[in-house]
Amino acid sequence: MANKGKYIFNFKTLMYEEERESKASNVWRSVAYFASTIVMAMLYFWIYTSVLGLESPKTILLKKTNDRWCSKIEVMNSNLDKYQSTLEALELRDDDIYRSIFGMNEISPEVRNAGFGGVNRYGWLEEVDRDGLLRKTVVRLDVLTKKSYVQSKSFDEVALLSKRAGDMASCIPAISPVNTDKSKYRLSSTFGYRADPFTKKTKLHSGVDFAMKPGNPVYSTGDGVVESVSFEFFGYGNSIVIDHGFGYKTRYAHMKSISVVEGMSVKRGECIGETGNTGRSSGPHLHYEVIYKDRQVNPANYYDLDIAPSEYAAMVQAKEITSERITLHPSHRKSKR
Predict the structure, then answer these.
(1) Fold of the domain spanning 178-336
(2) What are phi and psi of 48, to 5 degrees?
(3) pLDDT digit string (tens) for 30-59?
(4) Is the pTM of this model over 0.85?
(5) b/e string for 96-126 if b means 16 or more Cβ within 10 A?
């Protein structure tokens, strides 16, 4: 097949001759074609996106991918809501029931939320997370992880103390500090606000007063260790504070004599001294306090004054016999050798 070309008439030779183009013109023609193609493509893209308001296929694909991940993150946040609600219920039960039963202090909000304030550790997400959804989810996940760890450690502590539940039962102050024979005492003042017998001003009376003659035995109301023994001219006078553990302490004040020393272990029903009239006292009596988590509470909630005096005396006598056996047992074994 003959080559197709462009011919022009030469008036000098009176013949048609094939027109030959220079290489430069061919190059410029190619460049012009390429530039016009780019311009047309840009014009098409502008009309497609700006005039018609349509999106490019790549943008549509990216948006679909983004929507898919956002849906997954929203589902994750929905699950985190459930986990957070469950964890808050566990924290509330832990503070109000479990730790309270065993005399443990509540875990402060500062401890539960420690490590999430101050430094912006999530700044790296700001460039890739314009709407903040991913950052919010990452923060929640970190917070729940930390809180779950703190709660797990708290349950470990509660579990450890629960194994000592038997010890706790004997340590909580649960009896009257004096014999329940009503012919030997009267309740001269109860727990609560009253007129101070000296200043006549209304003031909280932090314990219970058993008015009775000096010299009556005073008994420890629970197992514990003598924390302090004080001899004061004013204030509580001759007084004892026993630490029972599990958040409980008891105070016995205005005593005539004291038969224990600091650091000494005592049992419930063990005699620790005698009633008296020492210190800031308006008459012979025993001032008795129950202290729970460093706060005085009503002692009437921890004893039963209606127990028969004979039963109280039998309990005290049984404690004394047990205490003597524990004390005499080593020397008894030695005498037999």
Answers:
(1) Glucose Permease (Domain IIA) (2.70.70)
(2) -70, -40
(3) 788 888 888 887 777 677 666 665 566 677
(4) no
(5) eebbeebbbeebeeeebeeeeeeeeeeeebe
The pLDDT assigned to 2 comes to: 53
Neighbouring residues of 301: CB distance < 8 A, sequence distance ≥ 6: 290
Q: Give per-residue pLDDT as tens, 159-205.
A: 887 777 777 888 989 999 999 999 999 999 999 998 888 888 888 99
Q: Map out the domains of the chain as residue ranges.
A: 7-51, 74-163, 178-336
Element (H, E) at 102: none
Is residue 221 a contact partner of residue 318, using CB atoms and an 8 Å limit?
no
The number of CA neighbours under 13 Å toward the Cβ of 31 is 6
Position 332 scores a pLDDT of 37
- Mean confidence (pLDDT) of the chain: 82
Contact status, residue 199 vs residue 221, Cβ threshold 8 Å: no
C-alpha of 190 from chain center: 35
Nearest-CA neighbor of 296 among 211, 191, 156? Answer: 191
3-class secondary structure, 321: helix
CB 159 within 8 A of CB 207: no
CA dihedral 313, 318, 320, 324 (to 10 degrees): 160
